């Protein structure tokens, strides 16, 4: 058992009457619980002639250790028993280049690739990797398993205390062919947390990867307070949970302080909610209507679409993932009993393409909110059309939903909304493959994306068909703005927008030449003019990656 657990179960038994002997292993590590047990064990040895306390270590300085105990009022040095052992030569191989940073984007992926390289270089024997957290261990197991999915010889397993005894024994007894005959001829990659570094014994290990990832054991009450609200589905649900709890606490400033959240931030969120309601952005759809819309979207996309619309009473934002805009527009048309009741939108037009098609949608994009309310009403239909206008303003690119984190959680008046174009790793992609890849990434990262779709696939397909490796791509640096990196594709900004706290979209100043409307965005993409909004060192890294993948790059900066 662990030192801490033993201290807990023996707190009321100062003479350790339930035990005849207690062994403290790895004494040189000087754990706090072990140090606290030493005087108690010494007192028990004096009180009980039948009791033995054994202190074990392979590297401790026995004379210094025993003298230290004696100086602190313990009995004279006890007998020392030396057990000779066998040492094996160990070669240290340092990771070249930049140090590995566990919190960096793609850190686990990079470590997984290095692990596979070391494993293949060893050619025989098992490999042990130490990481700092259980979450990192599980992620590493998944990543290494993915990289070696076609290797029938390797077995990748995690190892930490929370696993069942059966799962742990499959690792520690991996080489016991009598118990596990299926392991004959196989090799093991074990990913473990580093708290087991001094105590785990796995036969057949020929190489160990030590990341030196140390856990910070300090207690951060603010972080712990925020963790209770964290939602796997993303920032939107986290914000909603925080906001709902704050309202439930009568918007108390003391509640904010206890949970490490600034009252001003929540007040800003409350004001934003009022502005969203005032502008009828919140959707007031019934559950039945939502299900019908989901069915329509799923039928048109041919994939499982997700649509979460929060009712007005609790709305902090609207999260839409892979929504087909024309499906929603057509449903509004049918609900109002007209295929095109206002003349603002033309959906399902055969001639709709990347150039002329946007002109049919510009009216909705630029129409004042009051005009939309007049045409569609201020209820469900009008609210949906206002959201459609918000989607249209940011199409045909992909919008990263994290802008609400800046706008609400950080209390800023403006937030960057990145309009990205995905450059596939393997050259050109079909529209189906492109959508599937990006939707998969969105779901994996819990992100929110807004997307325009239409009945003519050429409108969306052009973003993939024009951005392949068959022709040159011009890259320009227009700003030193950095945002989150994604491993699945190489992202470049083609536009810079800001979402103001009143819900309006504005062009980011200083980012010239800026695309100020949908047609200019299209022109930039079709001219293969990608405006890179990154620090220079990140741009250099991106260009290098693209060239390694076979892209032809013009880099005028």
TrEMBL record:
- Helicase ATP-binding domain location, by residue? 1-78
The protein's matches in Pfam families, at most eight in alphabetical order, are given as: Helicase_C
Write out the entry's keywords from A to Z: ATP-binding, Helicase, Hydrolase, Nucleotide-binding
Q: What is this protein's record name?
A: Helicase ATP-binding domain-containing protein
Query: Which one of the record's GO molecular function terms can you name?
Result: helicase activity
State the similarity comment: Belongs to the DEAD box helicase family. DEAH subfamily.
Q: Where does this protein come from, organism-wise?
A: [Myrmecia] bisecta
* Superkingdom of origin: Eukaryota
PROSITE patterns per record: DEAH_ATP_HELICASE (PS00690), HELICASE_ATP_BIND_1 (PS51192)
């Amino acid at each position: 058992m662990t030192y801490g657990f033993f201290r807990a179960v023996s707190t009321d038994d100062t003479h350790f009457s339930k035990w005849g002997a207690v062994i403290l292993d790895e004494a040189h590590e000087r754990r706090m619980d072990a140090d606290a047990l030493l005087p108690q064990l010494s007192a028990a040895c004096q009180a009980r002639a039948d009791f033995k306390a054994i202190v074990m270590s392979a590297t401790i300085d026995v004379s210094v250790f025993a003298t230290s105990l004696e100086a602190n009022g313990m009995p004279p040095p006890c007998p020392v028993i030396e057990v000779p052992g066998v040492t094996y030569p160990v070669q240290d191989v340092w990771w070249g280049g930049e140090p590995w940073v566990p919190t960096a984007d793609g850190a686990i992926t990079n470590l997984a690739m290095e692990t596979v390289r070391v494993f293949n270089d060893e050619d025989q024997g098992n490999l042990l990797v130490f990481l700092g957290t259980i979450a990192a261990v599980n992620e590493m197991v998944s990543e290494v398993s993915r990289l070696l999915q076609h290797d029938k010889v390797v077995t990748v397993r995690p190892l930490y205390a929370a696993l069942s005894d059966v799962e742990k024994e499959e690792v520690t007894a991996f080489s016991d062919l009598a118990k596990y005959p299926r392991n004959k001829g196989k090799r093991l990659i074990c990913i473990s947390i580093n708290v087991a570094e001094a105590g785990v014994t796995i036969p057949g290990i020929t190489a160990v990867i030590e990341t030196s990832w140390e856990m910070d054991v300090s207690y951060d009450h603010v972080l712990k307070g925020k963790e209770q609200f964290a939602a796997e589905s993303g920032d939107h649900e986290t914000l909603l949970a925080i906001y709902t709890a704050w309202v439930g606490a009568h918007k108390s400033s003391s509640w904010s302080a206890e949970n490490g959240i600034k009252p001003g931030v929540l007040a800003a969120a409350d004001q934003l909610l009022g502005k969203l309601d005032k502008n009828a952005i919140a959707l007031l759809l019934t559950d039945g209507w939502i299900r019908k819309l989901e069915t329509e979207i799923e039928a048109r996309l041919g994939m499982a679409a997700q649509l979460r619309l929060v009712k007005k009473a609790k709305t902090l934002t609207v999260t839409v993932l892979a929504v087909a805009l024309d499906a929603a527009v057509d449903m509004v048309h049918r609900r109002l009993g007209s295929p095109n009741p206002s003349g603002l939108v033309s959906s399902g037009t055969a001639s709709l393409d990347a150039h002329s098609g946007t002109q049919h949608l510009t009216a909705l994009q630029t129409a004042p909110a009051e005009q939309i309310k007049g045409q569609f009403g201020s209820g469900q239909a009008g609210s949906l059309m206002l959201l459609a206008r918000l989607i249209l303003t940011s199409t045909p690119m992909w919008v990263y939903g994290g802008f609400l984190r800046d706008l609400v959680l950080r209390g800023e008046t403006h937030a960057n909304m990145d309009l990205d174009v995905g450059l596939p790793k393997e050259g050109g992609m079909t529209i189906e493959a492109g959508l599937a890849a990006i939707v998969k990434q969105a779901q994996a990262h819990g992100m929110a994306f807004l997307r325009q779709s239409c009945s003519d696939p050429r409108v969306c397909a052009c973003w993939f068909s024009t951005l392949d490796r068959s022709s040159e791509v011009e890259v320009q640096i227009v700003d030193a703005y950095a945002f989150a990196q994604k491993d699945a594709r190489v992202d470049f900004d083609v536009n810079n927008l800001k979402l103001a706290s009143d819900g309006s979209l504005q062009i980011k100043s200083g980012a010239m030449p800026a695309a100020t409307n949908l047609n200019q965005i299209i022109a930039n993409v079709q001219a293969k003019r990608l405006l890179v909004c990154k620090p220079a060192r990140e741009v250099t890294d991106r260009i290098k990656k693209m060239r390694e993948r076979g892209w032809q790059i013009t880099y005028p900066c």
